[in-house]
Design goal:
Keywords: Membrane, Transmembrane, Transmembrane helix. The chain has helices at about 10-40, 45-70, 85-90, 95-105, 115-120, 125-130, 140, 170-175, 185-195, 215-220, 240-245, 250-265, 285-290, and strands at about 165, 225, 235, 290-295. It is an all-alpha fold and about 300 residues long. The strands form 2 sheets. The protein has a two-stranded parallel ribbon with strand order 1-2. The protein has a two-stranded parallel ribbon with strand order 3-4.
Length: about 300
């Protein structure tokens, strides 16, 4: 059986292929050798080339401006409260974020740019990029000189329960007698007290912006909570997702993860086991524990 080859061409086809190759070679020669000489010798070509280059530069410039606008803006923030999501957005690695969270879990505070790098081990380039946005409390950036005439009526030494005043009824003037509390902090404490309808625990003082553990201890030395706010605690091992999200710092995602972990563990044996839940705000565990119970 005769099979006609696909690679056999007629005389007319071979001529056509030859002319096509000749045309391609001619175009290449013109593009690479003739056209550049024409552009060099003809000012009109140079002018057009220059105009096009300028136009392209303008487009690139507008693109750069638009890309800059689309970049997420960074606002001043306290580096002590960097979350996993915030740290990732800033360019920190998981290890650097974990170091910061472990440091804060010890109730320690970052008080300077150098201390932030010492704790997290971030690179100099990243530190230079994000440190201009660090915002520390006033008592860190503008520390007040210690006064020798500090009132001894509210000393830092612990008092008996009968000697202490009720924190839930204390006035601004009484709070300001505690070392480390001025007019600004006393107003913040009272404002937060009104917001939550009274303190239930001294732990809640951590929610007042700027109060250090030392100042909170000074408050505990001079005040008590005789009229604590009533909190209806939720049973951690039977709570539904909708019940859990009523607790401050627990959103639907964390609530879902809590229930999933609870199922895997066949119930929690300790509230502290919540720190093993994926996405749980570990640095807020003490505040969250106020609203939970284990039956």
């Amino acid at each position: 059986m005769n099979i006609k080859s696909h690679f056999k061409f007629s005389r007319q086809q071979r001529s056509g292929i030859f002319l096509l190759l000749l045309l391609i070679i001619s175009i290449q020669i013109f593009y690479h050798f003739v056209l550049p000489k024409l552009m060099d010798n003809n000012p009109e070509f140079n002018t057009k080339d220059s105009t096009i280059s300028t136009f392209i530069d303008q487009i690139d410039s507008l693109k750069a401006v638009e890309l800059e606008k689309r970049k997420p803006k960074i606002y001043p923030f306290n580096p002590n409260f960097i979350s996993d999501h915030k740290g990732y957005a800033l360019g920190m690695t998981n290890q650097e974020i974990d170091r910061l969270l472990a440091f804060r879990k010890q109730n320690k505070w970052i008080n300077s740019v150098n201390q932030f790098q010492s704790v997290t081990k971030v690179s100099d380039s990243l530190l230079a990029k994000i440190s201009p946005y660090f915002k520390f409390p006033d008592w860190v950036t503008n520390p007040k000189p210690k006064q020798n005439n500090f009132s001894q009526s509210f000393s830092n030494l612990p008092k008996t329960e009968s000697q202490k005043l009720d924190l839930n009824s204390a006035t601004a003037e009484q709070l300001q007698k505690v070392y480390g509390i001025g007019p600004s902090y006393s107003q913040r404490i009272i404002k937060y007290r009104h917001k939550i309808n009274g303190f239930h625990s001294f732990i809640e003082l951590q929610e007042v912006y700027g109060l250090t553990p030392e100042v909170i201890q000074n408050i505990k030395n001079n005040f008590t909570i005789r009229t604590p706010r009533v909190i209806t605690k939720i049973n951690l091992n039977t709570a539904t997702k909708d019940q859990l999200v009523t607790i401050k710092y627990i959103d639907y995602e964390v609530a879902y993860n809590i229930i999933e972990e609870r199922t895997l563990r066949d119930g929690f044996k300790s509230i502290d086991e919540l720190t093993k839940v994926n996405g749980f705000p570990v640095n807020k565990i003490q505040i969250i524990k106020l609203s939970l119970r284990l039956d």
